[in-house]
Amino acid sequence: MIIYANRITSRLQYVADFIGKEITGEPFQLTTDEFFFKAYNGPKINYGYEPVSNDELLIVNYPLLFEDSIRKQNISCFKLNNFPAFFKSEGDYPFDIFSAVFYLLSRYEEYLLHKKDVYGRYAHENSLAFKEGFLNIPLVNNWIEDFKKVLKKKFPSHNLQSSTFNFQPTYDIDEAFAFKSKEFSKIAGGFAKSFMKGEWAIVNKRLKVLRGKTNDPYDAYEWMDKLHEKNSLKPLYFFHVATKKGKYDKNISPSHPVMQQLIKQHAEKYSIGIHPSWASGDDESLLEKEIKVLESTTDKKIIASRQHYIRFTLPKTFRRLIAAGITDDHSMGYGSINGFRASVASSFYWYDLEKEQQTNLLLHPFCFMEANSFFEQKYLPQRAYEEMMHYYNVVKAVNGTLITIWHNNFLGTYPKFRGWRDVYEEFVRQVSEKT
Fold first, then answer.
1. Percent of the chain whose pLDDT exceeds 70
2. Which domain holds residue 132?
3. Can you tell me the distance from the alpha carbon of 77 to that of 219, in angstroms, rounded to the nearest whole number?
4. Which of 153, 177, 203, 409 is least surrounded by CB atoms within 10 angstroms?
5. Number of structural domains found in the chain
């Protein structure tokens, strides 16, 4: 399938590659040669202003892909087959799907002046998806499914690709244990807090863990292993290995034998990645140091990452990841609400909007994190289960990839998170049976 345009830009090339691979399994071929386009016998798209040939699909373009600046765009949404769309235009398709997809995937709006949240992150309330009510659906995938139908009707003899649904469970190990292997000052402080609050059950539990008479309440690793084995899952783990403690960096030292053993055990069975510390967002030298710590512990090359607290700023953070040798990042989502930050349930390469170029950093978007449900959305376990099933259904409908984030502490036996392990187990069972 080819696309004709008066000019080929890096923006157009980027989105033609993405949509082409989603629809046919390979990038769309671009051409500025009108005679070649007219003579071409296969399916062809005219990305212009007026027809060039009789057997084409005309998409009248919006200027976005031919610009080389970043400015506030005039966006007005309308309904198309029950889904929102924007950049409405004339032609054989009712909107410029190429510009709209680029706007969402590039995170164009995050380069504009915006409000930060309490953690200094891009606030989800700024986003078009939140304002227009499509944060909870993979809108890009829905558009592409609709576009496939139009192409199939226009070019019935051409074979289009059918994608396959995939479920990818992932875990962030921010705090490996609640009581076990903590520094003496932390242990003493923990006892003091529990005594003052009258949390006698926690005091008793802490004593049993420290005496080796029971498992740490955050130690859910064996249970998780059995869950994965039972349901034939291949999870991905992200380890926080900061060498210094901080307000948001609370894991035990990566040099502690217990932590090293935990990391090694998981590296032998699963794929693992770096969970950069909060401090690494302020001190640029820490990222590479933490990657080296994880590599030396596992004797493996670390190429995957997910930002702690989903703390990242475009383009700075992603450029640093690339410089540190990271090729796959799993941070594309919000740490304040569940949903599709880039409105997509497929992996895609990051486009550096300031440099106007596609990079080799592959982004794997997630749509559900249990910490969002618990801390931000204030859901009880059953409501969170219903939310997870919603995301399963909308991603399955477009044969996308469903990526979830869980933490070991929610899956252990700590009273605060009672019921969360049960709903996760049921969710995994349901997804595995239906897939």
1. 92
2. 2-154
3. 47
4. 153
5. 2
